[in-house]
Amino acid sequence: MDTSAQTSRWQDLGSGITCIDAEYVSPGSACFYLLERDGEFAVIETGTYRSLELLRQCLQDKGIADAQLRYVIPTHVHLDHAGGAGTLMAHFDKAQLLVHPRGAPHLVDPSRLVASSVQVYGEQAFAEMYGEITPVPQGRVREIEDGATIALGDSMLEFRHLRGHADHHFCIWDALSQGWFTGDMFGSGYPALRFSAGDFVIPATTPTQFDPALFLSSVDVLAAYQPQRMYLTHFGELTYSSQVKGLLCRQIERYRDLALQHAGDLEGMLAAVEACTRDALASLDPPGGAEAFMDSVSMDVQLNVQGLAVWAARQAA
Hints:
With 317 residues, this protein is α/β, with parallel strands linked by helices. The protein has helices at 51-62, 79-82, 85-91, 104-108, 111-121, 123-130, 212-224, 242-261, 266-282, 298-316; strands at 10-14, 17-21, 31-37, 40-44, 69-73, 96-99, 141-143, 149-152, 155-161, 170-174, 179-183, 194-195, 198-199, 229-232, 236-239.
């Protein structure tokens, strides 16, 4: 990884890819990517309304004109991934929004996204986290089908619809870097959880569309491309290996079993998923032991249990 050009807010990863901290919740929690190919640029993921200032500063420092930004591409419309889409599109008036067909209506009219999130977080917390969600004009939205390829400069990006986390999710294959922009389909893997024995990732099973069979199938699709690296939204570049894939898949399988075992018992499910996470961390022999790193994923665990509870209830219906 090229770390010669790096600030506290962004990091150049090589292959024309810059990782920008979205400053969502806390530093190192969520990011978005600036991708350059032959003088054309795309933003993959959007973070929240805060991303506009961060992106403009990055472009200015790199000497990139606003008109060179061709695409804004959220992997799905959950607000930590797409909350800033409208804000970015309003500023970059030459850009086109590329989005999954099932997600497109929610960015043209984000009222349902806003209402559901306000119900979860409350109005004050929602305003602090996401600000105003700006609609994107229909004429600037391009719906991307499974398997579609899009030219960016002198290279192509391939889009694959991959379910298991959300039904409106795609991942983006960049042949030049031999890497996937994974959204939430390869879990969350924070920099502090990369150990000498291997990298830790935790599945993302929230909020309502988790499906373990589809999730496992989607991970197999990602692996079939023989990637060298994964560009996680949570957080940053991760070297791909069969070891990290196996760790992710074992947790998904365990989640499935625990969700069914503790259906209707949220407290019991939380304790079981915490134990599962602790075991997964321990398998990598982290310095100081697994417990020392549980705080780093405590929010992920709590949100995952909410999604697992919804899935388990659906199985019982």
